[in-house]
## 1
Amino acid sequence: MVTATSQPAETAPISTTLYQTVLTQLREVAALLELEPGMFELLAHCKRELMVQFPVRMDDGSIRVFSGYRTQHNMARGPAKGGIRYHPQVSRDDVRGLAMLMTWKCALVNIPYGGAKGGVAVDPKALSRSELERMTRRYASEIAVIIGPEKDIPAPDMNTDAQIMAWIMDTYSQQQGFSVPGVVTGKPIILGGTRGRTEATGRGCMLIAREAAREQGIPLSGATVVVQGMGNVGGVATQLMAQAGFTVLAVSDSSGGLYDPKGLDIPDILRWRQGRSYLSGYPRAERITNATLLELPCDILMPAAMEGQIGEHNAAQVRAKIVVEGANGPTTPEADQILLNRGVTVVPDILANSGGVLVSYFEWVQDLQAFFWEEDEINQRLEKSMVRTYREVVELAQRRNVPLRTAALMLGVQRVVDAIQARGLYP
Ligand code: GLU
């Protein structure tokens, strides 16, 4: 594990919580879909929430108690699906909002899952590798009562990765007495992970950026891009967009951003960053803050870091033509309205970052069949699904004269409602 050098946490103010954002979005869509009030109530609540407080022995011998969550929003369309994040600010409300987004996302890309999310309030960079492993295993053991390949399937999210999925898979399997690869996705290939999963979210973001640029008649070669976040989503998307001929003007992480008006040398930055925790210190670009980065003139702005980054405080200064949401919930409803009035197209999270859960679905299917596919088959299926969903969303947006987010949510929410109605209320 790379030891973090101390860096000031540089984040924009979050005025609206993610849960409020997701509820506001649902309220608007429920009106457009003319949902009865009881159906709105049902969708506005999470079906099952587990909160756990658990002890972990630290390397110095002391005991530390952590708070964790696993929340299942809706399971009408199938087992719950969604990531686990490690972040100091993880809260019950965030996890609720993120679980709801997973329900709409899975329904939008039409995979047979409901939505869930989990998290632990922790800064994983402040733990040693063995502390991280013990914390992960104890958290996995605490939530083992509600997860499982037919019930709820976790995956990586912010600050979690294939190694953490491997520990969860092992912990769950030890308790069952046999290997259960299908209990998590995003695990290492050696344990039944799929080819293409690590890159899937970033690849999907790149495909959607390409489709959205084409739609607006922006030539791909030389289209200018600004990316906030260099994690698994932003990092991969940046690399693939640079390879596809886009000009990446700026990138950032929590330590701040790098900018070159002529375009950054992305392969050089990625090489330099290997073995380092942060971008700050890279010598061959101008340093900028995350706040400045979000306001740079460009064709495509990709917020791929935290929720709530584009809000009332800065939406009027965003000078991108298209915003492609790599993160979940990066734009608040107030900002959505400001961007809409200014003619900025926002491609919503549940569409733009759905490549991750799509390839998670392919992984789960391969695990259940114990039959594994080639990488080009996975990438082809990913592209086909994402491009088809993008077209469906654009078509509905045009037909109903609504923004892309509203159209995407209308498609997703309606599918969940249809499933609830087909099943009927029990008893
Ligand atoms: N954490 C990712 C998301 O927000 C992926 C979830 C999954 O693969 O289950 O979509």
## 2
Amino acid sequence: MKSRREFIKLGAIGSAALLTQTACAADDKLDNIETITTDKTAAIKPIVLSTWNHGIDANKAAWEILSQNGTALDAVEQGVRVTESDPDNQSVGLGGLPDRDGNVTLDACIMDHNSNCGAVAFLKEIENPISVARKVMEDTPHVMLAGEGALEFALEKGFTKTNLLTEKSKEAWQNWLKESEYQPQINSENHDTIGMIAIDENGNLAGACTTSGMAYKLHGRVGDSPIIGAGLFVDNEIGAACATGVGEAVIRTAGSAIVVELMRHGKSPQEACEEAVARIMSKHKDLTNMQVGFIALNKQGEYGCHSVYAGFNIAVRHNDFEDMVDAEYELEW
Ligand code: ASP
């Protein structure tokens, strides 16, 4: 394993912390970098983390809220809506790659600092499933609505239908059909959820996770992303975690809940992500294309990220830092 876990331990805001984080992406310079010890009294807040490159723009929207004393809940919702509404992003919301029958079906969930949560699964024709998930959380006694029921609920709440299948995604699907023999397959290109976790000025945590799921999946397939405890988990006493990658593997291991539990038992966010990745690897004999990445944030604003394969990165934003950070990983492709 490429192990440089110290440098994601953030306990102080300032140049040392900035240097340390920047170093995540510059492995060869790390030997000269001092390890920063956690100072539990100096929590970094606000702070927001998101999965993958699309997280940079999503974090910007979240930061507008967080930097003006807004809530982490509003920040994560508004943040991931940016990605959902981007037609060029083919793994989330509008423009997402469809299932093998050409339907774009979306999964999303949201969770706040009071352990309130809401989710939608297998939702069609709604551009911002995260906001429907929030309505499920706030306006119903339930946690998850799926399929037709979720769509009816969204329409009742004033959301409007949109054709989510863009020309670009339709073309990609039609090309896939030619070679695929209609067999869903996992590969590194066909998924990339946005998961976002944040702490606000008041020290409250929230998270959001939204995806069009695995491209060319079986019609009706739902991954980890809308499942509280799998794709996302928040416990305001401890921290928050989010997953991306092969949802089936994350569900099997209760991924995000495990990361938060590991933090509860004293692991740093980085150590917790590493152990969750190790768990995924030990439970799957065949790791071919089994990419999974976790991000985690604790109450002190320390964060971590780790993945099975190389290539996972996260967008981080707080008062002194705005950039991508490469995750450490276990396997090369
Ligand atoms: N986890 C998502 C799913 O399995 C996909 C992804 O994160 O890339 O639906």
